[in-house]
Design brief:
205 residues, alpha/beta, 8 helices, globular, seven-stranded mixed beta sheet, Rossmann fold
């Protein structure tokens, strides 16, 4: 029996995007979202962007990368001049393909040498995408000179954890927790069933 339906997967991303838009993007006035072209990343990104715009009145813009347009996308981001960039890499795209695009996106950002806050999606971080990307010295140096954050989850407690990332070297990635954001029972149940194929003991779903 499937752990979640596809409809539940989309709804899960809508719930997560809502939290990201309310609690992470809320400190900014202008944000860019860069994602790969897939349904799950699009659902998550759209939810985060719409809540950000509705709650803060801020300005957002969405950019979609593929293997042939990364340089063009980063040039467009540079012209838009956001305060922060949300890198929404994950979804149903094969992870090795996603990692390659993530690294190339960061490489092109590093070439601009423009200062942005960089927010990393949990999926690409958990899959080792950042670890692989910083093997490139130019990317490592660029990120060391900018604020880099990532959101993760505490599955048992039902919390989204917002973390600052410190990159001491290519071998050392350190997380410092900034905030714990409680999730609803419904959200926590979907997260656990989707990502761990289990329920937590305090949910009677």
């Amino acid at each position: 029996m499937p752990k979640t339906t596809f409809a539940e997967e989309i709804y899960l991303r809508a719930l997560t995007g809502k939290v990201v838009g309310q609690h992470i993007l809320s400190e900014y006035n202008k944000i860019a979202v860069i994602s790969t072209r897939n349904i799950i990343c699009s659902a998550l990104s759209a939810a985060a962007e719409s809540v950000f715009s509705a709650d803060s009145g801020g300005k957002g813009k969405h950019f979609v990368v593929n293997e042939s347009n990364v340089n063009e996308v980063i040039q467009s981001v540079e012209k838009f001049s956001p305060e922060a960039i949300l890198l929404m890499f994950g979804g149903e795209t094969p992870i090795e393909e996603t990692k390659k695009l993530f690294t190339e996106t960061l490489k092109q950002l590093a070439k601009t040498n423009r200062e942005y806050d960089i927010i990393v999606h949990v999926r690409i971080f958990a899959a080792g995408g950042l670890k692989e990307a910083i093997e490139d010295q130019q990317i490592l140096t660029y990120l060391q000179n900018n604020r880099v954050t990532v959101y993760t989850f505490n599955f048992e407690k039902g919390e989204l954890i917002y973390n600052e990332i410190y990159l001491a070297s290519k071998e050392t990635i350190q997380l410092e927790q900034i905030a714990e954001i409680p999730l609803t029972v419904e959200h926590t149940d979907l997260l656990n069933r989707s990502l761990r194929n289990k329920k937590v003991n305090w949910i009677d779903a």
